[in-house]
Write a structure and sequence with these properties.
The chain is an alpha/beta fold. It has a single domain, classed as 3-Layer(aba) Sandwich (Rossmann fold). The protein has 9 helices and 8 strands. Strand 5, helix 5 and strand 6 form a beta-alpha-beta unit. The longest helix has 18 residues. It is globular. It starts with a helix and ends with a helix.
Length: 309
Amino acid sequence: MALDPDAKAFLDLLASGGGPRIHEVPVTEARRLMEAMGALQGDGEAVREIADRAIPGPAGDVPVRIYWPAATDTRPLLVYLHGGGWVLGSPATHDGVCRALTNATGCVVISVDYRLAPEHPFPAAAEDSYAAVRWAADHAASLGADAGRLAVAGDSAGGNLAAVVSLMARDRGGPGLRMQILAYPVIDGRREYPSHAENAEGYLLTTDAMRWFWGHYVPRPADRAEPYASPIAAPDLSGLPPALVFTAEYDPLRDEGEAFARALEAAGVPTTLRRYDGQIHGFFTMTDTGAASRRALGEVAAALAAAFA
């Protein structure tokens, strides 16, 4: 399918700005560029309440941003893990998608500001994310939420972390998760897939950038075979929460995300795979500019409503 017009417009806007690519500059500058890209999404939707807090983590406090929907009855709870290659991003860069998720799903949404690489390499981000999910379950009542209706979601590297947290929750005795929502997730740092070559350049995320991200997060290639780094490497994927997996046609990560969906299904995990033809990496968070993002948000809302029923 041809490139989606919304995706092309976004790519053209980025190209008009010129300048270096994210993986060609120092990490501090790459983070500044990511924050600037997040600002392109505008102010986002209004929600009833937002609060920034700090929660206990394995190596000190972990900042989180909490969003409450308009409804004031006890709501489901969704922990969101932002993308950015484990090196970039924050609740601020993903504020728009978290606002949209809050309104679309009616969940209390907790966005986690986990530790970033290279200052904090693997498994820091994964352990912070798991700690946040445990905290959410333990403190749901104080948030006006229901710990029995808890799910986890993330995009890109955040999709990796959502899948990893699902493994950790199974392996470590909880908390119980009703669903994992993985938007174009990073799944496998061990090997190349055809889409890495097919979509290596020109579609926002590049294959070279992914190598740069892996090099910062898991510097030792041998460690990328660890299931909490590459969740598809887990010897047993059974017993995980149902999954909704989004992929994009023009994305280097397309094939590994789809391979993970097939592996989950083969392990008996109820799994829905949606490839968004014509789309690029990042489409899910383009809530102000992309019709595809709105369709995906509707799919998330429907999937969570079924999972929480």
